[in-house]
Amino acid sequence: MNNEKIFFSIILPTFNRGNKISKAIDSVINQSYKNWELIVIDNNSSDHTEKIVSSYNMDKISFYKYNNDGIIAKSRNYGIHKSKGEYICFLDSDDWWDKFKLFYVYKEAIKDSLFIYHDHFVLNDSRIIKKRKITGRNMKNPIFGDLLNYGPCFATSSVTIHKNSFNKIGYFEEDKDFYGWEDWNAWLTFAEISNKFSRINKPLSTILIHSENALNDNLKITNMNKFCAKYLNDRKFIPNWCLYNQIIAHFNIADFLYVKLNIKKINFLSLNNIQKINYIKIFLNTLFK
Questions:
Q1: For 186-228, what is each residue's pLDDT tens digit?
Q2: How far apart are CA 272 and CA 61, in angstroms?
Q3: What is the pTM (predicted TM-score) of this model?
Q4: Burial of 56 by CB count in 10 Å (0-12 exposed, 13-18 middle, 19+ buried)?
Protein backbone atom coordinates (compact mmCIF):
# COMPACT_ATOMS: atom_id res chain seq x y z
CA MET A 1 0.00 0.00 0.00
CA ASN A 2 1.43 3.45 -0.87
CA ASN A 3 1.91 6.37 1.53
CA GLU A 4 -1.43 7.98 0.69
CA LYS A 5 -3.57 8.39 3.80
CA ILE A 6 -6.39 5.86 3.77
CA PHE A 7 -9.82 7.44 3.54
CA PHE A 8 -12.15 4.42 3.90
CA SER A 9 -11.60 1.39 6.13
CA ILE A 10 -14.10 -1.34 5.30
CA ILE A 11 -14.94 -3.69 8.16
CA LEU A 12 -16.11 -7.14 7.03
CA PRO A 13 -16.83 -9.71 9.79
CA THR A 14 -17.46 -13.29 8.72
CA PHE A 15 -18.05 -16.81 9.94
CA ASN A 16 -18.28 -19.84 7.62
CA ARG A 17 -19.35 -17.76 4.64
CA GLY A 18 -16.79 -19.18 2.23
CA ASN A 19 -19.59 -19.80 -0.27
CA LYS A 20 -20.65 -16.12 -0.23
CA ILE A 21 -17.74 -13.90 0.79
CA SER A 22 -16.15 -13.61 -2.67
CA LYS A 23 -19.05 -11.53 -3.96
CA ALA A 24 -18.65 -9.11 -1.06
CA ILE A 25 -14.88 -8.79 -1.56
CA ASP A 26 -15.20 -8.44 -5.35
CA SER A 27 -17.68 -5.61 -4.88
CA VAL A 28 -15.02 -3.74 -2.86
CA ILE A 29 -12.17 -4.43 -5.28
CA ASN A 30 -14.31 -3.23 -8.19
CA GLN A 31 -15.09 0.15 -6.60
CA SER A 32 -14.48 3.12 -8.87
CA TYR A 33 -13.05 5.00 -5.87
CA LYS A 34 -9.79 3.29 -4.90
CA ASN A 35 -8.58 4.84 -1.62
CA TRP A 36 -9.69 2.10 0.77
CA GLU A 37 -8.52 -0.80 2.87
CA LEU A 38 -10.54 -3.94 3.53
CA ILE A 39 -10.30 -5.62 6.93
CA VAL A 40 -11.76 -9.13 7.14
CA ILE A 41 -12.34 -10.45 10.68
CA ASP A 42 -12.95 -14.18 10.69
CA ASN A 43 -14.55 -15.78 13.75
CA ASN A 44 -12.43 -18.93 13.38
CA SER A 45 -14.36 -20.34 10.44
CA SER A 46 -14.17 -24.08 9.85
CA ASP A 47 -14.69 -23.79 6.10
CA HIS A 48 -12.45 -22.42 3.33
CA THR A 49 -12.96 -18.72 4.16
CA GLU A 50 -9.28 -18.02 4.92
CA LYS A 51 -8.14 -19.70 1.71
CA ILE A 52 -10.54 -17.60 -0.35
CA VAL A 53 -9.47 -14.31 1.24
CA SER A 54 -5.79 -15.20 0.96
CA SER A 55 -6.20 -15.97 -2.74
CA TYR A 56 -6.72 -12.26 -3.48
CA ASN A 57 -3.13 -11.58 -2.38
CA MET A 58 -3.62 -7.80 -2.08
CA ASP A 59 -1.87 -5.44 0.34
CA LYS A 60 -5.14 -3.53 0.66
CA ILE A 61 -6.86 -6.58 2.18
CA SER A 62 -6.03 -7.62 5.75
CA PHE A 63 -7.23 -10.86 7.31
CA TYR A 64 -7.52 -11.53 11.04
CA LYS A 65 -8.73 -14.54 12.95
CA TYR A 66 -10.60 -13.47 16.07
CA ASN A 67 -12.83 -15.34 18.50
CA ASN A 68 -15.82 -13.10 19.07
CA ASP A 69 -17.74 -15.45 21.40
CA GLY A 70 -20.71 -15.26 19.03
CA ILE A 71 -20.97 -11.47 19.35
CA ILE A 72 -20.44 -9.78 15.99
CA ALA A 73 -19.95 -6.39 17.70
CA LYS A 74 -16.62 -7.68 19.02
CA SER A 75 -15.44 -8.51 15.50
CA ARG A 76 -16.49 -5.12 14.17
CA ASN A 77 -14.80 -3.28 17.05
CA TYR A 78 -11.65 -5.35 16.59
CA GLY A 79 -11.60 -4.40 12.92
CA ILE A 80 -12.10 -0.72 13.74
CA HIS A 81 -9.17 -0.80 16.16
CA LYS A 82 -7.00 -2.28 13.37
CA SER A 83 -8.19 0.29 10.83
CA LYS A 84 -6.26 3.31 9.52
CA GLY A 85 -8.98 5.13 7.60
CA GLU A 86 -10.70 8.41 8.36
CA TYR A 87 -14.13 6.88 7.75
CA ILE A 88 -15.40 3.42 8.61
CA CYS A 89 -17.63 1.45 6.22
CA PHE A 90 -19.43 -1.74 7.14
CA LEU A 91 -20.05 -4.68 4.85
CA ASP A 92 -21.46 -8.04 5.90
CA SER A 93 -19.96 -11.08 4.22
CA ASP A 94 -23.20 -12.04 2.46
CA ASP A 95 -23.93 -8.54 1.11
CA TRP A 96 -22.34 -6.55 -1.71
CA TRP A 97 -22.01 -3.00 -3.03
CA ASP A 98 -22.64 -1.13 -6.25
CA LYS A 99 -19.31 -0.20 -7.87
CA PHE A 100 -19.95 3.54 -7.37
CA LYS A 101 -20.83 3.26 -3.67
CA LEU A 102 -17.57 4.72 -2.30
CA PHE A 103 -17.52 7.42 -4.99
CA TYR A 104 -20.88 8.78 -3.84
CA VAL A 105 -20.06 8.33 -0.14
CA TYR A 106 -16.80 10.23 -0.58
CA LYS A 107 -18.68 13.17 -2.12
CA GLU A 108 -20.83 13.35 1.03
CA ALA A 109 -17.94 12.81 3.45
CA ILE A 110 -15.98 15.83 2.17
CA LYS A 111 -19.04 17.96 2.97
CA ASP A 112 -18.33 17.22 6.66
CA SER A 113 -21.04 14.58 7.02
CA LEU A 114 -20.23 12.28 9.94
CA PHE A 115 -22.83 9.57 9.32
CA ILE A 116 -23.66 8.61 5.74
CA TYR A 117 -26.22 6.05 4.63
CA HIS A 118 -27.98 5.17 1.40
CA ASP A 119 -30.88 3.19 -0.03
CA HIS A 120 -30.40 -0.49 -0.71
CA PHE A 121 -31.88 -3.57 -2.32
CA VAL A 122 -33.08 -6.64 -0.43
CA LEU A 123 -32.71 -9.98 -2.20
CA ASN A 124 -34.72 -12.93 -0.90
CA ASP A 125 -34.96 -16.01 -3.10
CA SER A 126 -37.75 -17.49 -0.96
CA ARG A 127 -40.17 -14.68 -1.82
CA ILE A 128 -42.34 -14.26 -4.91
CA ILE A 129 -40.87 -10.80 -5.39
CA LYS A 130 -37.22 -11.72 -4.95
CA LYS A 131 -35.65 -8.27 -5.13
CA ARG A 132 -37.06 -5.00 -3.85
CA LYS A 133 -35.71 -1.56 -3.19
CA ILE A 134 -35.65 -0.17 0.35
CA THR A 135 -35.88 3.62 0.33
CA GLY A 136 -34.58 5.52 3.33
CA ARG A 137 -35.54 8.89 4.76
CA ASN A 138 -33.79 12.24 5.01
CA MET A 139 -33.26 13.05 8.68
CA LYS A 140 -32.81 16.57 10.04
CA ASN A 141 -33.28 15.60 13.69
CA PRO A 142 -32.19 11.94 13.77
CA ILE A 143 -32.60 10.96 17.41
CA PHE A 144 -35.71 12.81 18.59
CA GLY A 145 -37.54 13.56 15.36
CA ASP A 146 -36.91 10.46 13.28
CA LEU A 147 -35.10 7.32 14.42
CA LEU A 148 -37.19 6.76 17.54
CA ASN A 149 -40.48 7.75 15.94
CA TYR A 150 -40.09 6.01 12.59
CA GLY A 151 -37.51 3.28 13.12
CA PRO A 152 -34.51 2.06 11.11
CA CYS A 153 -34.25 3.10 7.48
CA PHE A 154 -30.88 1.72 6.44
CA ALA A 155 -28.91 -1.52 6.65
CA THR A 156 -25.53 -1.84 8.36
CA SER A 157 -23.89 -2.58 4.99
CA SER A 158 -25.14 0.84 3.87
CA VAL A 159 -23.52 2.83 6.70
CA THR A 160 -20.32 4.89 6.70
CA ILE A 161 -19.31 6.75 9.85
CA HIS A 162 -16.50 9.12 10.82
CA LYS A 163 -14.06 7.06 12.88
CA ASN A 164 -13.00 9.64 15.48
CA SER A 165 -16.60 10.70 16.01
CA PHE A 166 -17.71 7.07 16.38
CA ASN A 167 -14.95 6.60 18.96
CA LYS A 168 -16.73 9.12 21.22
CA ILE A 169 -19.49 6.58 21.91
CA GLY A 170 -17.11 3.62 22.23
CA TYR A 171 -18.09 1.97 18.93
CA PHE A 172 -20.50 -1.00 19.22
CA GLU A 173 -21.84 -2.27 22.53
CA GLU A 174 -20.39 -5.74 23.16
CA ASP A 175 -22.74 -6.79 25.96
CA LYS A 176 -24.83 -9.87 25.10
CA ASP A 177 -28.02 -7.92 25.88
CA PHE A 178 -27.44 -6.06 22.61
CA TYR A 179 -26.92 -9.13 20.44
CA GLY A 180 -28.88 -8.70 17.23
CA TRP A 181 -29.46 -4.96 17.68
CA GLU A 182 -25.99 -3.67 18.55
CA ASP A 183 -25.86 -1.73 15.29
CA TRP A 184 -29.27 -0.08 15.81
CA ASN A 185 -28.25 0.86 19.35
CA ALA A 186 -24.99 2.35 18.05
CA TRP A 187 -26.78 4.52 15.50
CA LEU A 188 -29.18 5.80 18.17
CA THR A 189 -26.33 6.51 20.56
CA PHE A 190 -24.38 8.32 17.86
CA ALA A 191 -27.43 10.40 16.97
CA GLU A 192 -27.46 11.70 20.55
CA ILE A 193 -24.10 13.41 19.96
CA SER A 194 -24.40 14.46 16.32
CA ASN A 195 -27.06 15.34 13.76
CA LYS A 196 -24.66 15.33 10.81
CA PHE A 197 -26.46 12.49 9.06
CA SER A 198 -26.51 12.43 5.27
CA ARG A 199 -28.58 10.19 3.00
CA ILE A 200 -27.61 9.25 -0.55
CA ASN A 201 -30.77 8.74 -2.58
CA LYS A 202 -29.40 5.78 -4.51
CA PRO A 203 -29.54 1.99 -3.86
CA LEU A 204 -25.82 1.29 -3.48
CA SER A 205 -25.85 -2.05 -1.66
CA THR A 206 -27.69 -5.36 -1.80
CA ILE A 207 -28.67 -7.20 1.38
CA LEU A 208 -29.08 -10.94 1.02
CA ILE A 209 -31.78 -12.62 3.12
CA HIS A 210 -31.34 -16.37 3.61
CA SER A 211 -31.78 -19.17 6.14
CA GLU A 212 -28.41 -18.50 7.77
CA ASN A 213 -29.30 -14.96 8.88
CA ALA A 214 -28.97 -14.69 12.65
CA LEU A 215 -32.24 -13.07 13.69
CA ASN A 216 -35.28 -15.23 14.39
CA ASP A 217 -38.69 -14.03 15.49
CA ASN A 218 -38.22 -14.84 19.18
CA LEU A 219 -34.97 -12.87 19.21
CA LYS A 220 -36.65 -10.00 17.36
CA ILE A 221 -39.34 -9.84 20.05
CA THR A 222 -36.75 -9.92 22.82
CA ASN A 223 -34.69 -7.18 21.17
CA MET A 224 -37.70 -4.96 20.52
CA ASN A 225 -38.62 -5.24 24.20
CA LYS A 226 -35.06 -4.31 25.19
CA PHE A 227 -35.15 -1.36 22.79
CA CYS A 228 -38.45 -0.16 24.26
CA ALA A 229 -37.15 -0.49 27.81
CA LYS A 230 -34.03 1.56 27.03
CA TYR A 231 -35.36 4.25 24.73
CA LEU A 232 -39.16 4.41 25.12
CA ASN A 233 -39.70 3.72 28.81
CA ASP A 234 -41.15 7.19 29.47
CA ARG A 235 -43.55 7.12 26.50
CA LYS A 236 -47.23 6.31 26.78
CA PHE A 237 -47.46 4.78 23.31
CA ILE A 238 -45.13 2.52 21.33
CA PRO A 239 -44.31 4.01 17.89
CA ASN A 240 -46.21 2.54 14.99
CA TRP A 241 -43.13 0.95 13.34
CA CYS A 242 -42.13 -0.76 16.57
CA LEU A 243 -45.61 -2.16 17.23
CA TYR A 244 -45.91 -3.34 13.63
CA ASN A 245 -42.63 -5.27 13.83
CA GLN A 246 -43.65 -6.85 17.11
CA ILE A 247 -46.98 -7.96 15.67
CA ILE A 248 -45.26 -9.51 12.62
CA ALA A 249 -42.89 -11.46 14.86
CA HIS A 250 -45.66 -12.62 17.23
CA PHE A 251 -47.76 -13.70 14.27
CA ASN A 252 -44.85 -15.73 12.88
CA ILE A 253 -44.52 -17.68 16.13
CA ALA A 254 -48.33 -18.21 16.27
CA ASP A 255 -48.87 -15.95 19.29
CA PHE A 256 -52.28 -14.91 18.00
CA LEU A 257 -53.50 -13.57 21.35
CA TYR A 258 -50.83 -10.86 21.29
CA VAL A 259 -51.75 -10.04 17.69
CA LYS A 260 -55.47 -9.76 18.50
CA LEU A 261 -54.81 -7.49 21.47
CA ASN A 262 -52.52 -5.13 19.60
CA ILE A 263 -53.22 -5.11 15.88
CA LYS A 264 -55.96 -2.46 16.09
CA LYS A 265 -53.53 -0.10 17.82
CA ILE A 266 -51.60 0.32 14.57
CA ASN A 267 -52.19 3.41 12.45
CA PHE A 268 -53.02 1.64 9.20
CA LEU A 269 -52.73 4.77 7.04
CA SER A 270 -49.12 5.35 8.07
CA LEU A 271 -48.01 1.94 6.74
CA ASN A 272 -46.42 1.54 3.33
CA ASN A 273 -48.12 -0.60 0.68
CA ILE A 274 -46.30 -3.83 1.57
CA GLN A 275 -47.00 -3.29 5.27
CA LYS A 276 -50.68 -2.65 4.53
CA ILE A 277 -50.92 -5.96 2.66
CA ASN A 278 -49.23 -7.76 5.56
CA TYR A 279 -51.53 -6.04 8.04
CA ILE A 280 -54.66 -7.16 6.18
CA LYS A 281 -53.33 -10.71 5.83
CA ILE A 282 -52.48 -10.94 9.52
CA PHE A 283 -55.77 -9.37 10.60
CA LEU A 284 -57.82 -11.82 8.52
CA ASN A 285 -55.74 -14.82 9.59
CA THR A 286 -56.11 -14.05 13.30
CA LEU A 287 -59.77 -13.03 13.20
CA PHE A 288 -61.06 -16.53 13.92
CA LYS A 289 -58.08 -17.95 15.82
A1: 999 999 999 999 999 999 999 988 766 556 899 999 999 999 9
A2: 40
A3: 0.91
A4: middle
